[in-house]
Amino acid sequence: MARSALLNVMVQAALKAGKSLSRDFGEVQNLQVSVKGPSDFVSQADLKAEKIVHDELMKARPTYGFLGEEGGEEKGTDGSHRWIVDPLDGTTNFLHGIPQFAVSIALERNGEIVAGVIFNPATDELFTAEKGGGAFLNDRRLRVAARRVLSDCVIGCGAPHLGRGNHGKFLVELRHVMGEVAGVRRFGAAALDLAYVAAGRIDGFWETDLSAWDMAAGLILIREAGGFASDMKGSNDIFDHGSVVAGNELIHKQLLEVINRPIPTA
């Protein structure tokens, strides 16, 4: 597959950060059994990966803005471009030695995501997409799954946890979805969940309380793979509302309807 110069820069940054995370992941698998746990170690792995990505991207395009999970936002002199980066999506998985985590990098141009890269170094899976150029896993073209009814579908989700999210609201959404689908999955890394929708591994996905860096690269992957993504109300204000619902055209529409059903009164 042919890649633009910018996408190549993003890929190289993701691979370099992924190599660093792979080394640290080997260490954290040993550390996880200790009483204290490897939380501080993981924080350092996260920061180190973001610095690698930041340095690689800014070396190539020093005038672009940069929004990272760890370092916050840097305004660029070029007001039309911004990198959006999560150096370690799936931190809790990483912390527990679960090989479901990724580096996520997106490029925003005039408010629109135009390129995205998601790399899981544990599985050596590289997801890439550019506006108008399609979505790929390594060098294989991706298409969202073609299932037409929820009863045939496996749907991914994010679940709130201690100190985070609206637990009651999620349980209502889950109750509604469970009754309509073939299976529900919670993998713990939103960027990879969205990439899995693009790859047809899961048929749809929904989650709330997300940040731009969790979703940006995954959104263009899904759209370039022929899928649809919106916020929980069906609008395109995904970053503003911090929620996402995704799938092919039919499943996206059905999933929106199910998760927005009113709370049962009985």
Descriptive account of the structure:
The structure is a single chain. The chain is of the alpha+beta class and 266 residues long. It has 2 domains: 5-141, Fructose-1,6-Bisphosphatase, Chain A, domain 1, CATH 3.30.540.10; 150-259, 3-Layer(aba) Sandwich (D-Maltodextrin-Binding Protein, domain 2), CATH 3.40.190.80. It has helices at residues 5-31, 39-60, 91-95, 167-178, 190-198, 212-224, 238-241, 249-259; strands at 65-68, 72-74, 81-89, 102-109, 112-120, 125-130, 134-137, 140-141, 154-157, 183-185, 204-207, 228-230, 244-247. Strand 6 and strand 7 form a beta hairpin.
Question: Which key phrases capture this entry?
Answer:
single chain, alpha+beta, Fructose-1,6-Bisphosphatase, Chain A, domain 1, 266 residues
Write a concise synopsis of the structure shown.
The chain is built from 8 helices and 13 strands. The chain has 266 residues and is of the alpha+beta class.
Beta content comes to: 15-25%
Number of domains: 2
Shape: globular
Low-confidence stretches: none
Spatial extent as radius of gyration: 18 Å
Order of helices and strands: HHEEEHEEEEEEHEHEHEHEH
Major beta-sheet overview:
8 strands, mixed
What fraction, in percent, of the residue positions are helical?
25-40%
* Annotated CATH architecture of the largest domain: 2-Layer Sandwich
- Strand elements, count: 13
Biggest sheet, strands in spatial order? 2-1-3-4-5-6-7-8
Please, what is the CATH homologous superfamily of the largest domain? Answer: Fructose-1,6-Bisphosphatase, subunit A, domain 1
CATH topology of the largest domain: Fructose-1,6-Bisphosphatase, Chain A, domain 1
What structural class do you assign from the helix and strand content? Answer: alpha+beta
Continuous helix count: 8
CA(first)-CA(last) distance: 54 Å
Indicate the CATH class of the largest domain: Alpha Beta
Mean of pLDDT: 93
